[in-house]
Amino acid sequence: MTEQWEVTGQRNVAGQAGQGQQDAIARAWDALVAAARRTVADGLVVGTSGNVSVRVGATILVTPSGVPYDRLGPGDAVGVDADGNRLFGDLAPTSELPMHLAVYRTTDAGAVVHTHAVHATAVSTLVPELPPIHYMAAALGGPVRVARYAPYGSDELAEHMLRALRQRTGCLLQNHGTLTYGTTLDQAYDRTAQLEWMCRLWLTASAIPGHAPTLLSPGQLREAEDRLRGYGQR
Questions:
Q1: pTM to 2 decimals?
Q2: 96 tagged catalytic
């Protein structure tokens, strides 16, 4: 890590954890910043919209509110506990902190990604759940529900989101965007990207006049879920 992190880390994290924990937090912050910048590069957010968090032990690292991601450095790390109490960092945490904390309190999530992806947000205004147009819905636990609208940053929105997340690892937020979580940051991000892709696919297929997309049955989704458990390298 850079000298800037070391100085800031000593000031902000000293007394909170040992050197090993500090190193883990430093690595997690670097990964969080990279993921936040990727949301912009991949067109999932515009400006400072959206936010990312990662859990390291009892510490939750979150993107700060209203700071462009390309300006974030090691000295900008923000850490809170599960109740939202500031552990370190001089910047205010994301305004969507209630949603992130709600996920960590109720799941085994290691990371959360929230975006304003355009196709997913469009779908959130049209249907109560994303129709099962592709088997990758199984990677999110089934058809992705839409959480009822509430003001951003509110406890009410966090409550609506939790209902939409029951037995799911991602949801749409009505007239707002997406939220996904995973055991790792890579998994949470992949689920976000897959969700946006499925929304784009459904919108494209639904736009053909006189035709309706073929949808998958619950049995087909269960079969896909079983197959996905063995997907990839071991």
A1: 0.90
A2: yes
